[in-house]
Amino acid sequence: MSRSLPAGKNVVIYAGGSIIDHYKNLLDSGFTTVILNSLHIHDDSSLWLNGTEVVDASGKAQPVATQLAEIITELRGGGITTVLVSIGGGGSFNPNSSGINGQHSVSDADFKAFAAAYWPANGMTDPLATTVPIVNNFNVFISTIGGDGIDLDPEPMFYTYGQLLSSTVALTEWALDAGMLATWAPYTAQQSWQAYALALGQDGLGQPLTPSWVNVQTWSQGSDLQGWATAIGVPIGSIIGGFYNYDPSYIQNTLADAVQGGAQITGAFYWNFDDIASDAARIANVANAIIAGLAGTSVSVSPPTAEYQD
C-alpha cells in the first residue's frame, strides 16, 4: 500500500487509551491526524498498546485491534485522514531489585526488545521482510487497524540514543519501503537525531530517505524549528511543532507569530487527547486554534497565558 502525506494543513493530536471510549469527540473537530500512543514491544515480540495486547507473539491480532479498526473507519468519516501508531514514548521503570540498572524509560525496554527480536531473525540479511517475526507483527497490527504508518519515539534514559540508532533506522526504512508513513518524535537530543537522519540517508536502499515529518515536542518551550529542519535535512514544512495542554489562544498566537515571521510551517500537534478527551468543545477549540494560527491569524488575549483556561 502507498500512503500519502496529508493534504493542506496537518492538525495532529496524540491519543492514548482514552480514544477507545471518547473517539467520537474527534469527529469533525478540525483535527486531521491522530497518532495512537503508545505501542510497546515485549520480549516475546508481542505488541501492546499501553497495557493491552494487540498482537500476540505468534502474530495474531487481538480483539482490541479489530475494535480500533472500527474506530478508525469512523474517524476517517469525520475528518481524520491519517492515523499513525507511536512506538516507544516516555514514562519510566524503576531500578530492578538487584540494582542492575537505574531508572530507565519505557523506550529503553521497547527498543531493546525490538533489537533482540529483529537482528537474530534475518534482520541482517533480509531487513525489510515480514519474514522477520517482529516486523510481521507490526505489519499485522497496522494493516488490521487500517493505519497509515508509524511514529518513532525513543527517549532513552538507561541506554543511549546511539544504541537505538540501528532500530530507529530499520523501522523507518521498513515503513517507508512498505509505502507507509514514518514520522519521528525527537525530544531534545538534536545531535543524536541528526545522526539518525544521516544514517537513514546513507543506508543504501537505492535513494536518499528522510522521515515523512518530524514532531518536535519542545517547540512551545522555544525550540528552533529551522534548526531542527536543518539538522534532520528536511524542509521546515516537515517540522511539526507541539504543544502540551496550553490555552488555545496561546497555541494560536505562537503559531501565528511564526507564520507572520516567515516560517513556512504546515502543521502542529497537541499532546494529549487523554487530557481533554471528554470535552468535545475544548477539543474543537484546540484544533481551530491550530488552524487559525497556521493561517497567520492572531487573537487578542488579556492577560496572555500558557495555561489552559476553562
UniProtKB/TrEMBL annotation:
User: InterPro entries per the record?
Assistant: GH
Xref: Gene3D superfamilies: Glycosidases
Highest taxon of the lineage: Bacteria
User: This chain belongs to which protein, by name?
Assistant: Chitinase
